[in-house]
Amino acid sequence: MDSMQDIASKRWFMGKGRKIESIETEDRVAIGETFLSIVRVNFAASENCEPDLYAIIEDETRTADFFYDVFSCEKARYGGTSGEFMFMQTENFPVDVSLHELFDIAPLDAEQSNSAFASEHFFFKLYRRLLPGIHPEVEIMEQLDRKRSGVSPQLYGTCYYADATGKRYTLGILEERATGMQDAWAYFNGVMDAPCAEALGTATAKMHRALRGLPGTPAQNPEIPFDKLEHLLNCATGSEMRELAERVKATLPKLKRMAKDAFGAPTGSELSAPQRIHGDYHLGQVLVAAATTAQSLAKQASSAPAFKILDFEGEPTRSLEYRRALRSPLVDVAGMLRSFQYAGTTSGFDSTACEKAFLEGYAQAAHVDAGNAQIDLDTLERAVTPYILAKAVYEACYELEFRPGWFHIPARALIKLAD
Description:
Blueprint (H helix, E strand, L loop, with lengths): L3 H6 L10 E12 L2 E10 L8 E6 L6 H8 L3 E5 L4 E6 L16 E2 L6 E5 L3 E6 L1 E2 L5 H11 L8 E8 L5 E9 L4 E3 H7 L3 H18 L14 H9 L4 H25 L22 E4 L4 H7 L6 E3 L10 H4 L6 H18 L4 H18 L7 H26 L5 H11 L1
Antiparallel strand pairs: 1-2, 2-3, 3-9, 4-5, 5-10, 6-7, 7-8, 8-11, 10-11, 12-13, 13-14
Helix pairs in contact: 4-10, 5-11, 6-7, 6-12, 7-13, 10-11, 10-12, 12-13
């Protein structure tokens, strides 16, 4: 087992900054040539917090038999030292792919918040941190498959752990591996392709249409951390940072009024009606066809989709209840618009045309979905503005806390919103 120092240094460890009291193996099972363990991290009493639970494949270099054993049949169950591990194929499990390819699934090199493994046709994600309850990624991918949306990889399998008390945790998912595609963040950092952005807006509306009707936890207004932002602005150091922080501080009274006016009462707008959404939507969560151009997009309109949307688990630091909440789809729209602005700033390109094209694609697809109700682009821009504000405040807090050199990106957005 990893030492306390090793655990605390991992990117996927959610308890950074908290004192670890002890690490215990809660459960363990041998599968193939490795072990799947459930590890409990106990924090010092002074931290006043519940323990964290993590799933760990002890030797990720010896998983060839592991994936064949658990996913080569419709259902597989393994008794651990105290609980039970369950693995299931979905009805979409590919019959035209040899089961022997399961032996080829191997770990990907990059350390991420989850463990990732892949072969030519399969992608497996092991959720590091475990929380009891329904996992949003599983139910969203199941819904997108039921609706035959085509905007996401197909879900091929799921796995769960039930502890001795009956609490059930989602361990991970097996899904289709999208090939011949590239990361949309990298793509738009290379070229601000407005036709591609418009097509992404259409795909986003299609995703929202497919998710409509999926149950979730009760809707709540966005949480905008103005108090945290003000505290972080007061702590800013360096002359340039202080000057920019003071400019943002001066906008806060107006921004707070804007947020109160926007979220203080229901709008009744279909555009912002609460439903299940992606919840952590940005260019890094999208794959785009490698040969995407304005011409190829037109050709692909009636065949293979130009995009695959990924990672429906929501923000990993949030509770499952929060991540499963019904929220305005404009939260996702705002997230993608902000992502275009980040891409434009880091690449040196003007993202304005892509932002407008994305909204046009979304509005047109939402208009088709709404029947005869025409969705005016100006109306959509006004409706999404409060959500852009909420996202930019969140970004400003994050950048001030973890990446001060990037603070200027959300800072400029907040100043512009207050003008």
